[in-house]
Amino acid sequence: MSDGEAGEPAPDSERSFPLPALAPAAWAAVAFVAGIWLGQWSASGGIVALGLAAICIAWAAFRTAGGRVGAIRNVALLAAIAALGFAEGELRIARPARIAADSYRALPSEGASERIDRVEGVLQDFWTGTPPKAHGKMRAERLWDGARWRPFPADVVLFVSGEALLSSRSDRGDRVVAVGRLRPEGPPASDRDVPVPGTVFRMSVKSALRLEEPRPTALSVLTAPNRWLFSRLPAPGSRGEAFDRDVRGPLAALLLGRTSELDRGMVARYRRGGLYHLLVISGLHVGLAAALVLGLLRALSLRGRPRDALVLSTVAAFVIVGGANPPAVRAGIVFAIFLAARLIERPIPAAQAIGLSALVLLGAAPAQIHAIGTVLTFAAVSGIAAFAAPLRQMLPKRPAFLTSGIAAAVAAQVGTAPALLWRFNVVALGAWLTAPISIPIAAALIAVGCLLLVLFAAGLPPGPVGAVFASGARLLEFFADRMAGAAFLRPTPPLAAAAGVTLLCAAGALARSRPFARRLFLGAAGVLYLMLVLRRGPAGPDPGFSVEALDVGQGDALLLRWKRHAVLVDGGGPFDLDARDFGRTRLLPKLLDRGITRLDAALLTHPHPDHALGLFAVLEEIPVGVLWRSDGQDEGNLYRDLERVAARRSVPVRVLHPDDVISSEGGRWTILHSGGPRPKRDPTNNQSVVAIFERDGRRALLTGDAGEAAESELRRSGRLLPADLLKVGHHGSRGSTTPGFLATVSPRIALISCGRENRFGHPAPETLASLAAAGARVFRTDLLSDFEVGLFPGATRLKMRELP
Q1: SS3 for 370-425, per residue?
Q2: 728 within 8 A of 750, measured Cβ to Cβ
Q3: What average pLDDT does range 687-701 have in this prediction?
Q4: Between these two residues, 591 and 515, which has the higher pLDDT value?
């Protein structure tokens, strides 16, 4: 950050440098990234690439020493840097992935479902969630195969149950041995996820006590201040629910990076308003902290090298207090290089600082090229470098600290908007509209929060400081809530088009000396971005309809589409009732990839978590015409909680009854079963909604988790009709899909939604045998992931997801 970005204009010798047409470090970073990308997919060649890099560097040095410099030498240097990147990709990404795969294959296969695995590695994140369910990420180092330790350089997502407090035993940076069940992760939720070499694994750990032998590392030493400050915060519940919600949670997230302490309702409101980034430590917060200190030092008339040294120290302290949070580290590196160059009286342009930062960061951790956080960090700082100064000239000159902050925030939004649209489908107009207010409030919260942390660290009561912080947090939440309508989700755009917006913005920034070309490039970027925002996703079939089984693990989520109509039947989810964020991370990306930004209806067949939890995010994030549910009894208060969310979002709720008929655009729903008597076996499952959807002479029968009792009742009632497609009840368990039921339905196609290697043994061999005897073709999410069946007049088509 330059003085001109954070306060009054500095003297000429201290002004920020314009983004040049050519920045050697920036071009070097581009070559380095390209080399890493190629190297990570190679089978070998890392050593050869290092040799090539050495030859290119030696040749360039020789030519320079001989007095001949120019384009050929520059090309040689870029080739050397690309070769170094290739070596990084092959030696530090591709080769470890092969080693990890070999070690996993060496595990004994007999009794794999009951196998207990031991993995040693370093915890990379703070724990998310609270007991009895929490998760975190480990960078594994070795794996016990039953006889010896094998190298196992892989990422492992840990899911920990039990009541023991995790952070009191181990936390980010600790080296631990985790004991549990290791398995490969399934396919990513979204097809937009860029493929990465190697496999991400997951491990289920029954208790925090099974995280053995925590030992410190350099990372845990670095996070020690964060741990100590977190331990000094008042215990949850000790000062009341309001304190936890408005002070403890936002303070822990804003300054310590502990987002799991935030109230879920608050998080939902911030997300809907497009302001969630203000609650989570990021490069923006690093910049605000630096700007606050810079403004204070200016007020004290401190300039030059002492001032830069203090700002640099502030940035370092802020990053360390935040637990060396990766986004803060990335931004901190950019600031550190820029300020360090000024300290040694070798100031460099912003593009040069950004390029050097990328080389340092990716040289230390080349796998960071896959992190969307890395993309957003460099997009934000590049946007600030390119557009903050022109934007600042359009704003009033006083107060300088406020206008500079607004200009930087809007410039960062310009830089990150294409990536946010592509990766998160969000158009955060709220973040643009509220920047003049929300950015200063966030800066004030950082300042007051630092004072509050000092009070807690000293064991003093928060007093009025806590009240001021709580008021600021509530005020920021108020703006987020009011901006909910100004932040909306859009269909996933093509990656090439989103990248085109970024390239056009970059071309406009580089064309500063040519006003017409600059306006042309920036105008084209704006038009292309607007086209991506306004574009509609693909429509459903006409005539006929499609049924798509969405891979949500051990649960159900079916999407029915025809023309511009869409109905979601169940939303999937884990068996943890508190996992209300499942839909946002697993289900919504699938819907948005398919262009679904509105649902005619969402149907919950029965109140079990593996069908219901994903619907919370669906109701909160996208418009839903109506919520349909069974007439059966509630369980786990899921009906009650979903209806509360529906009421907040003005979504009507309709309880379905047998013989209800609902028609829409040539499609007709007929409810065959809903609620009714509760049998002794599987009472809630047997109160599931069973419905037929038919259009243009084709028919699909959807059964929820209905079992033998509901099937027998349907046969006796005479409501049951033949169907082209059957959604097999209860994930294919042996208690459903009886031969008599199949004889009446006579399906040609059967869909089974179940999790990979699920602990229930679904689908049961007996059920598969019954379906085979009935002549039904079976398609399963545990084997195929997402798949779609198109039922058209006179034709049936199958579309499957391409799995690696």
Answers
A1: HCHHHHHHHHHHHHHHHHHHHHHHHCCCCCHHHHHHHHHHHHHHHHHHHHHHHHHC
A2: yes
A3: 96
A4: 591
Q: Coil, strand or helix: which one is 506?
A: helix
Distance CA 191, CA 787 (A): 13
Burial class (CB in 10 A: 0-12, 13-18, 19+), 393: exposed
> Which phi-psi region, left, alpha or beta, contains residue 257 (left: φ > 0; alpha: ψ -120 to 50)?
left
Radius of gyration of the chain (CA): 29
| Helices (H) then strands (E): counts for the chain | 30, 25
- Would you call 65 exposed, middle or buried from its count of C-beta atoms within 10 A (0-12, 13-18, 19+)? exposed
Is the pLDDT at 5 greater than 60? The verdict is no
Q: Does the pLDDT value for residue 788 go beyond 60?
A: yes
Which tokens sit at 19? 């983004």
Whether residue 409 contacts residue 252, with contact meaning beta carbons closer than 8 Å, is answered with: no
Write the pLDDT tens digit of every residue in 353-386: 888 889 999 999 999 888 888 888 888 888 888 8
Under a CB-based contact definition with an 8 Å cutoff, are residues 141 and 121 in contact? yes
Look at residue 433 and give its three-state secondary structure: helix
Token pair for 668: 């007709």
| Element at 336 (helix H, strand E) | helix 326-343
In this prediction the pTM is 0.86
pLDDT tens sequence across 157-192: 998 887 655 666 678 899 999 999 898 888 888 877
CA torsion through residues 9, 15, 17, 18, sign: positive
Q: What is the pLDDT of residue 19?
A: 35
Closest CA to 321 of 454, 136, 504: 454
